[in-house]
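$ ./design --mode recover --in tokens.txt
reading tokens...
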């Protein structure tokens, strides 16, 4: 797992979020003028919030320390990593929804299942990641199973003979139901993070297209003659 975390810190940096911030502030603050009052809503503020928190999350991931040998501390370090990834993911969903004029919050990855190969829950990557987040720290003592079943995550433990980096067992409140094993791979979390973070390039292109269209429309508008110099 330490090798995987080293891979994260070597591949993930804040250059892309800086590039995105520059695109947002470029062209005489076009994004601010368009989105500060769009159909009666200030969408500039959430754009700023998303940029700020992506920066926080990415810089936190860059500074991920070596994992502790104490399993309890290690688990919370992993949960901190998961939380940082969650911030990036949620921010991308918000930015995508704003720049593409979606009603409500919509993920650009809705329905995609490319990151988690052993997903046996028949759900997309977004939903599966939410289960990872819940079971490894967000609310491990209050999980939903099927048909009203409640699940409870065990004390997390290192991998034994499994392919996962860290695991829990899921206890059920239904009498007679067997425990279930659930594990995560740091490499798959990295793939998930990279797919979300790199989507900023797509949003940069969208901003550029919107500005080009705006410029084309404005260039076609005649400038009225006036005797006033100003």
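writing sequence...
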């Amino acid at each position: 797992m330490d090798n995987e975390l080293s891979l994260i810190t070597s591949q993930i940096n804040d250059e892309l979020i800086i590039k995105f911030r520059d695109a947002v502030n470029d062209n005489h603050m076009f994004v601010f003028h368009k989105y500060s009052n769009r159909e009666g809503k200030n969408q500039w503020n959430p754009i700023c919030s998303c940029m700020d928190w992506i920066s926080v999350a990415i810089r936190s991931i860059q500074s991920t320390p070596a994992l502790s040998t104490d399993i309890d501390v290690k688990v919370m370090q992993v949960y901190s990593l998961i939380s940082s990834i969650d911030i990036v993911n949620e921010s991308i969903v918000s930015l995508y929804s704003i720049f593409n004029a979606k009603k409500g919050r919509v993920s650009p990855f809705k329905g995609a299942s490319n990151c988690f190969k052993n997903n046996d829950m028949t759900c997309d990557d977004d939903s599966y990641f939410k289960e990872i987040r819940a079971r490894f720290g967000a609310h491990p003592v209050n999980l939903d199973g099927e048909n009203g079943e409640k699940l409870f995550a065990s004390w997390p433990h290192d991998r034994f003979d499994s392919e996962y980096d860290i695991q829990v067992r899921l206890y059920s409140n239904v009498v007679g139901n067997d425990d279930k094993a659930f594990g995560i791979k740091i490499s798959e979390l990295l793939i998930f993070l990279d797919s979300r973070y790199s989507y900023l390039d797509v949003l940069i292109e969208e901003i550029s297209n919107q500005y080009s269209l705006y410029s084309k429309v404005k260039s076609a508008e005649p400038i009225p003659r006036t005797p006033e110099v100003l």
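exit 0
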